[in-house]
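Sample entry (53 residues):
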Amino acid sequence: MLRFRRMRTLQKFASVHASVHNLFNTERSLSSRATFKRNRATALAEWRGLCAA
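Predicted structure, serialized as tokens:
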């Protein structure tokens, strides 16, 4: 937190980080490996699509 010189920069980083974290964060222990890998691949494809636009 000390690396951010302005509060606005910190807020922008936090909002983007929260969106990305929610997209990729899945409770690994609650699903099988195949399901986990499929969900990660879907999330990564969606993320790449958003970044390309």
